[in-house]
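Continuing the batch. This is chain 6 of the set; chains 1 through 5 are on the previous pages. Same settings as before, nothing changed between runs. Recording input and output for traceability.
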Amino acid sequence: MLVTLKEILKIAEEKDYGVGAFNTPNLECLTAVLQSAEKYKVPVIIAHAELHESVQPLSVIGPVMIQKAKEAKVPVCVHLDHGEHLDYLEQALELGFTSIMYDGSSLSYEENVANTKQAVAMAKKKSASVEAEIGVLGGRETAGTASVDPESMYTDPALAEKFVKETGIDALACSFGTAHGIYKTIPKLDFPRIAKIKELVKIPLVMHGGSGCSENDYIQAISNGVRKINYYSYMSREGVFAVKDMLGKQEVTFFHDLAAAAQQAMQKDVERAMKIFYGL
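Output for chain 6:
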């Protein structure tokens, strides 16, 4: 059942849990996520990030995501993740994506607001939802800024309130200690900050860099207003581990056997994450 992000987040608010948002740049990822959601009968968000264009073009995987969402037995939002260019967001909307995220976090506040407002206007024409970001997350977004104090990049609550009022977005991605990719050290999350932001903005909050956090971190984040948890890196890594394990144990002739092993491993990890996010 294809739905918007706003509809998914309404369910999350009513049931007081976090909805998993999983990047699905190929069929194995997509199948692992949707089968897990149907197994546990929970709503889910499948996403394609602009940075995955080189992995699988939006024009190829997008229609597949939308068709699979329509066929699913649970509510599914098809989301464009970390869209940095408005024309790319427009492409996703034209394909039928029901949600887009504009990522202007590397721009000035004024530019971020101006572009986010354009994204909101574009989405409104398609009855789609919009997520946007203020503050800078670690990992991909902090390339070349390793010497910067991490806390200086965290989302400022007062600025977040202003940003939400000026843009009219449906969900806000915040920086409070998570990072994209694989963690090299245990993340220390600023929960008082996220609680203050939630108090001020009154819309659902999004946790990016959700992979690799502890069960307690997820539970605390959800209790402080996070309703969408982005998850990909660790799921994808489990697929790699499974392939390496198979190649190390037996002679493999066909690629599809490796793909199946990767899918099964990713599904197992997705199910583990879902049990925490949805309190199963």
